[in-house]
Design brief:
By secondary structure, the chain is mostly helical. It is about 75% helix and about 0% strand. Helix 2 packs antiparallel against helix 3. The mean pLDDT is about 80.
Length: about 110
């Protein structure tokens, strides 16, 4: 009987240690989801949306691998957004023939 109590006590202590030190699976899944959404937005050229997702990730998980990666990407996006290569209001000019064609065939 004594050995069964020792094994049960060791199992309870191991479970408590794992639950106290490990991250919850839902939290890890949420971090991966936010990082995925931010990466997709960044690939699509939506820097503002990516920045918000990385910021949320960094604030929620500050000392983790996901949080430090998000902080680095936030710094990169912040520098990119402060000095854009091209103004959002500026449009590449088209040739007069393509403009005339668009004017004539526009439904």
């Amino acid at each position: 009987m004594r050995s069964r109590a020792n094994w049960m006590q060791a199992g309870v202590l191991a479970a408590a240690w794992i639950m106290a030190t490990g991250a919850a699976p839902e939290g890890v899944e949420q971090a991966r989801r936010w990082q995925y959404h931010a990466d997709v937005a960044r690939a699509g050229g939506l820097d503002e949306i990516a920045y918000v997702s990385y910021e949320r990730l960094h604030r929620t998980f500050p000392g983790t691998r996901h949080g430090s990666l998000a902080a680095g990407r936030m710094r990169h996006l912040r520098s990119r957004m402060s000095w854009p290569r091209q103004s959002p209001a500026q449009e590449n000019p088209g040739s007069w023939t393509s403009e005339a064609f668009d004017f004539l065939v526009w439904p």
